[in-house]
Here is the input.
Amino acid sequence: MSIEQTLSIIKPDGIEKNVIGECFQRFEKGGLKIVATKMIHMDRAKAEGFYAVHKERPFFNSLVEFMTRGPVVVSVLEGENAIAKNREIMGATDPAKADAGTIRKDFASNIEENTVHGSDGPETAKFEISYFFEKNEIFS
Ligand code: CMP
Here is the structure.
């Protein structure tokens, strides 16, 4: 067990569905602390940079369109095994495959509009947190 930080994004569909508080509550009930948070509206370049690892995928353009159609809430979550814990709280990428009681099962529309993003490993978390937050914006 170790204390980790992970990046969370509540995506445009989550904002449109008015479930920011519901997501925050699930993070907190799962033992994670919100140590940084803000609402931002990404432009195309910001979203493309964030998802650069997916740029060869057929869904890349559509994903960037989706992620820039409205504001998102980016947060740093902290706690024991925060990366895996957040992924457990979110559920599988495809809501059709997500476990009952997960955010994606309860709120996601489809595999693209899946309400939340969470870092998938320690290196990714480091990159993703620094992509949105300065060190002095994180209150560990
Ligand atoms: P996320 O966890 O943010 O990581 C990459 C995102 O790409 C994913 O959530 C979905 O929003 C999207 N995505 C992944 N697979 C597909 C797919 N097969 N079709 C459309 N979008 C996808």
Observations:
- The mean pLDDT is 98.
- The CA atoms of residues 26 and 57 lie 31 Å apart.
